[in-house]
Amino acid sequence: MSGDLDTGAEITWCTGCGNFGILAAVKKAVKKLEENGIQREDIVISTGIGCHGKIFDYLDLSGIYSLHGREVASAEGIKLGNPDLKIIAFGGDGDCYGEGLAHLLFAAKRNIDITVIVHNNGAYALTTGQASPTSPKGFKGPATPMGSVEPPIEPIGLLLSAGASFVARGYAGKVKHMSDLIVQAVEHPGFAHIDVVQPSVVFTDYYEEYNDLVDELEDTRSTKFEAMELARESDRLPIGVFYREERPTYNEELLGERNPVKDRLSDEKRLKEIRSFLDV
Amino acid sequence: MVSKDDVRAMDEELFTVIIGGQAGQGVKKAGEAVSKFFLEKGRYVFEMDDYQSLIRGGHNFASVSSSTEELFSHHMRADVVVNLDKTSYEMHKKNLTPDGLNFYNSDEIENGEGIGLPLTSMSKEFQRPQLIMGVTGIAVLAAVVGENKDSLVSLVNSVYPRGKEDNTAFSKLVYDEVLDKVGSTLDLKEGDCRNRMFPGNHVIALGAASAGLDIYFAYPMTPASSILHFYASHGDKLGVTAVHPESEIAVANMAIGATIAGARSMVGTSGGGFALMAEAFSLAGMVESPVLFVLSSRPGPATGVPTYTEQGDLGFALHQGHGDFPRIVASPGYMEEAFYLTADMLSLLWKYQTPGIILTEKHLSESSMCMDVDPSKVRTVDPRMHEEDTGYKRYLFTEDGVSPLTFPPSKEAIKWNGEEHDEYGLTTSRSEEVAAMHDKRYMKEKAILEELKDRHTVNVYGSGENVIFTYGSTTLSVREALRCSGIEAKVVQPIYLRPLPTWELKKHVEGRSIVVEQSVAQQFSTLLEDKIGLEPTSVIKRYDGRPFDPMDLAGKIKEAIR
User: Of A153, B266, B366, B476, which residue is least crowded by CB atoms under 10 Å?
Assistant: First the structure.
């Protein structure tokens, strides 16, 4: 793995895209995590499909470029295969809050120990700017030329309802802040979600508005209800960790101490067990 | 037209019991008790459970056939029929052999044909009359074949650990009543079978476990669910983790994820669930993930008939997933084969890093028969691994298209990519790279074909001018039809369906050929026509959700070769 985590692949995001901020924040976070004792070879990533997914090619980390909306399921499978690994799933708003929403909610519900980062730009950018699950009502795109008639999803409240034990919001324009969030999320023992507000320079270029609205939170909220209220504030854009709690993780509850790829039965033991089924 | 009465079972020791009743009356358990009784007599047994998709009411029955010789199917003409309710009585009158005994509940039916037992009034004094009704089956059988009462009691105790006392007491009442009314008139010879019997799904589960399966992912769907239940109950001992996520889409994608960590992964479902896995199946082909998919068919399309059997998913299995990529599709024709083939497939898929399918049907998945396997005979092949410390490329070009594997943690990034990619696994759309990677995957297809040419790929049973082509669980019906009728024919069953072993099958395209399958569109026959130019003289098919009755099938075969 290269020192700077580069792969040498040509970066094809638009100049000024919020994805650059996320890429920089991830690289920074990986270095910080290494300082904290988490090896980069233990970090495995998955991505969905969309502009966000290209991050797969730009990070010299192991993982899978999965299907549209399935990055969370892929991530869960890797974690269950080897629970010692740290998994980060990257999704887009159309991808993770639309096509693959069920996986996201169930991952939160079961509190599997993975981190999900959603590049939330409020549009299907790679497919030329259709309205996404987080696009505001009235959003004009090629599939809604008269303006979208649907109100948006509010991801923070949704994730909290589903049972996520760590929910944060980051902003693509605040790399250092986001990088800290990623470190906390990866170190959180359980399901961690970061919704990253990320302008698309072509379809949702709201840098100026966001820069004015962004407000870094000092503390997390002590109840889910307060966290949900905070997420709905419209006169400012609070970023930071909204809520966190610790509860048993799915991987621990399901596997106990066992690591499926490290703690295999010996051939002898397995044969003996199978024989006992066949012979009794 | 040859009616089934023209074909008489030549096996004089064949003995069949049918027990019918409502869901909730313990019909399946009654079948299990009868099977156990036969097993204890050293007889070969085949049990088929016919049940509906409901929890209470409706009509269920179990047909248990046994013989002193090895047999391959249940029969639908019974020596003893035990009807726990009126629906069963109406339905199974036609299922008696000429000398068969028909038992019915005389509290529900007045002056019926056969032997009336006042089951309702006899069970009234017990706390839960419906729950003990099922024990009638084994009590009747024990009485008519002259088994002593103590043996009956000990069998009831072992099969009905819950409610032991009531079941035992009720079975004794029924036993005495039957002895009083008809006595012990039937003869049952003991055999020398020492095997246990298993339902097909447990055999598949044990086969995969013996090849080192690590994780089984599934969403419940009949008739595959009992694989999930088996691992959930016994996985701890076998080293297999059972995972039941939110959907079949999650199932398939998680299974691919697990292979990235190095875990041997299998999933199981039926047609509808397999449809939801289509995109992930294609992803497995693209990222080169060796997930084993078990597809246990029931009648389709759509939800179809959830608890019955059919072979309407053959074409679906052969063509699952969009795009070009290699896959292996195999279908077991009997229980032992289900064990070894599942184990073998898991190894084969890891060898070639591509998805594959065990195609089976409800008739094998949920029927039980005697089986003898030796898990130490399972051949496991370790996948090709990256041995050096540097230069790792997930999709390294090699002579046979198979790239070495390595798993995290790894100093070098391992990039599994569902978009077209270069050797490192980075995304590409460059024309030469797209074509080269297609060629790489296609080379694996050729390598698989070459490997199969050195393997046993087609089962051939019997001989004769008449050749019967069949596959999957229908092979059981065909073999039993021939065994019991004495019809001479050669049965040809491809174990692998993709790649189809045309080199072997072509050897049998001669004389009169008959195809037997359970698909209205005769998908198997069409496949053989396309691939080996077979022009069958006759296609015998059944597509009402029920497996063939062997004697009925024998009649149809006799007519076809006349």
Answer: A153
Please give chain A's pLDDT, 280 residues, in tens.
777 999 999 999 999 999 999 999 999 999 999 999 999 999 999 999 999 999 999 999 999 999 999 999 999 999 999 999 999 999 999 999 999 999 999 999 999 999 999 999 999 988 999 999 999 999 999 999 999 999 999 999 999 999 999 999 999 999 999 999 999 999 999 999 999 999 888 888 888 999 999 999 999 999 999 999 999 998 999 999 999 999 999 999 999 999 999 999 999 999 999 999 998 5
**Nearest CA distance, B512 vs chain A (angstrom):** 41
What is the ipTM score, two decimals?
A: 0.98
H/E stretch holding B297 reads strand B292-297
Degrees to nearest 5, angle at CA B347 with B346 and B348? 95
Which chain A residues contact residue B373 at CB under 8 A?
278
Residue type, A102: A
Residue with the two structure tokens 């028969």: B369
Q: Rounded to an integer, what distance in angstroms lies between the CA atom of residue B13 and that of residue B21?
A: 27
pLDDT, mean over chain B:
96
Contact present, B193 and B44 (Cβ < 8 Å): yes
For domain B458-561, which CATH number applies: 3.40.50.920, 3.40.50.2000, 2.40.128.110, 3.40.50.1820?
A: 3.40.50.920
Distance CA B57, CA B23 (A): 5
Q: Residue B37 is encoded by which pair of tokens?
A: 């009784």
- Token pair 């569902």 is at which residue? B418
Fold of the domain built from segment(s) B197-377: Rossmann fold (3.40.50)
Host H or E run for residue B37: helix B27-40
d(CA B290, CA B347) in angstroms, rounded, equals 9
Q: Which pLDDT belongs to residue A202? A: 87
| Extended beta strands in A35-159, E state | 43-47, 62-65, 86-92, 115-120, 123-124, 130-131
The third-level CATH classification (topology) of the domain covering B4-181 is Pyruvate-ferredoxin Oxidoreductase; domain 3 (3.40.920)
The two tokens of residue B329 are 């599709």
Q: How far B285 CA lies from chain A's nearest CA (Å)?
A: 12
Identical fold for domains B4-181 and B458-561, yes or no, is no
Beta bridge partners of residue A167, listed in sequence order: A193, A243
Per CB-CB distance under 8 Å, the chain A contacts of B245 are: 73, 76, 106
Portion 309-328 of B in contact with A at CB < 8 A: none
Residue A276 has which token pair?
């006992």
Helix (H) or strand (E) run with residue B136 in it: helix B136-144
CATH topology of domain A18-251: Rossmann fold (3.40.50)
Instruction: Retrieve residue A268's tokens.
Output: 């002898």
What whole-number distance in Å separates Cα of residue B254 and Cα of residue B217?
8
Identify the CA nearest to B13 among candidates B79, B74, B66.
Answer: B66
User: What pLDDT does B2 receive?
Assistant: 41
Element holding B460 (H helix, E strand): strand B458-461
Distance from CA of A239 to the nearest CA of B (A): 31
Q: How far apart are the C-alpha atoms of B447 and B206, rounded to whole Å?
A: 28
Does residue A254 contact residue B241 with C-beta atoms inside 8 Å? yes
Nearest Cα residue in chain A from B389: A1
Of A75, A255, A270, the CB nearest to B209: A270
Across the interface, of B210, B259, B418, the residue whose CB is closest to A274 is B210
| Whole-number Å distance between alpha carbons of A113 and A221 | 21
Tens digit of pLDDT for each residue in B324-364?
999 999 999 999 999 999 999 999 999 999 999 999 999 99
Q: In whole angstroms, what is the distance from residue B370 CA to residue B385 CA?
A: 39
- Grouping H, G, I as helix, E, B as strand and the rest as coil, residue B99 is strand
Amino acid at B514: I
All residues of chain A having their beta carbon less than 8 Å from the beta carbon of residue B234 are 277
DSSP one-letter string for B388-420: SSS---TT---TTSPPPB--SS-SS--EEESS-
